[in-house]
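Objective 1b: paired records.
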Amino acid sequence: MERESVLSQIGRRVRARRTSMGWTLKEIAERSGISPRFLCDLEAGKGNISVARLADVAEALDVPIVSLVSTDEEEKRVVALVGLRGAGKSTVGKALAKHLGVRFIELDALIESDTNLVLGELFSLHGEAYYKRRAYDLLVKVLMQNEPMVVATGGSIVTDPETWQLLKRRTHTVWLKASPENHWKRVLGQGDTRPMANRTSAMAELRSILSLRSPLYAEATQMIDTNSVRVTEAVRMIAEALTDRKNGHREAQARAKRERDSAKPQAAKRERDSAKPQAAKRERDSAKPQAMSAASTKRHKETQKSK
């Protein structure tokens, strides 16, 4: 990745994190010990910051430094399943993890374990904003482990721009799509009757939520319609997409290496060609005093003879 591109990427992520939290440049400057002017340059992609100073910025933004510097070109080793509750994230996720030989994680279960609260209590006591904050923080920790895994996310994760951008940037996202009716049947099939308890408009609400979130879910790397695809087929489709992506990543790396290698002789030739006129000029310039000296000596001798 080119230096300017890396700096630009870091700048975008610093600004996105700062603005999403409602912090000013002055506040981050005070926390990090870095001047507001330099931070402004950093967000504009012009700040050539050291790793140590970037660590100070990351600490001021309350995020791990890895979330600011990881590249978009890195191989994505984590599969993140998204979709409404009842889409099949747990079922497909467990089967996929077993097929790939990796860990399976449910983000909501991590949140419950981390807060020592079931989700219902967490929302009641702290609200949705707190849930989103914990989801982001725990997701960053999971991704920092830098190991292959399958993650089933909460249905609302796409509604938090920062978390959704992190997922799209760092993972292979898969939208498990289903009709409102199938979402409903699967949740009830799990023995959970809460969605319909004392709510005659529950199905209409489900349709509305799915309609609002579908454009966001559609931003995922891959979509699988679980209305018509069985679990085994879904696993095969995702595994094939991962293989294709991995091969594409390797081909891109190989192509970039070939381009760099082919550019080296050309750069050397350009350097030699550009050096020739300069060498000739230096030779001419160094010859001038000698020529002038020879001419002067000749004139002196002629003057002496005339005398």
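Objective 1b, second protein:
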Amino acid sequence: MTGHFHEVPRRRRQAIWRGVIAFGLNVIFAAGALAQKINIEFDQAVNFSKFKTFAVRDGQINSPNPALNSELTKKRLEAEIEQALTARGLTKTTGPSDLNVFFHLGSLRRMETEAYPAGWRGLRTRVVRTPHTEGTLVIDLRDSTTRSLVWRGIATEERATPAKLADKLDDMVKKSVAKYPPKK
């Protein structure tokens, strides 16, 4: 009988630790899942110091949500890109330019499923479905003389709602353009 009393608390402790570990992992992975990712690609053969001026030529938004798919969002993105490139030493122009800027914003609503131990002694599994919106902003810089792509910034952000994603667009632009000109 003495062994029986020692078995119950040990099992209970194991169940508690399994729950604590599962919760900790969920917090870590959830924070990582909602992190912003910035990637850049560029033409290694291009001398970026020759580019002095830019013009935003076209922007496209492809989102089923009205919080993102609007003319106001497009204007806001254009202004953020212009401000970020100006801060990097380029001059905005409306006529002929050294670089032509194009951007594309797309979003997708996703459902993520997470499972972790639950119930008495942690023997059951609890499944939680978490919706989130994934947005991708692509900024292309093209050499106006050759019309070839010389630099591309890709920013990916995951947020709980499209409205929260819209609040992060300026940050997505700033972090992408901060990597221009690229370090070879």
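The beta strands are 37-42, 53-62, 91-92, 99-118, 124-143, 149-159. Confidence is low (pLDDT under 50) at residues 27-33.
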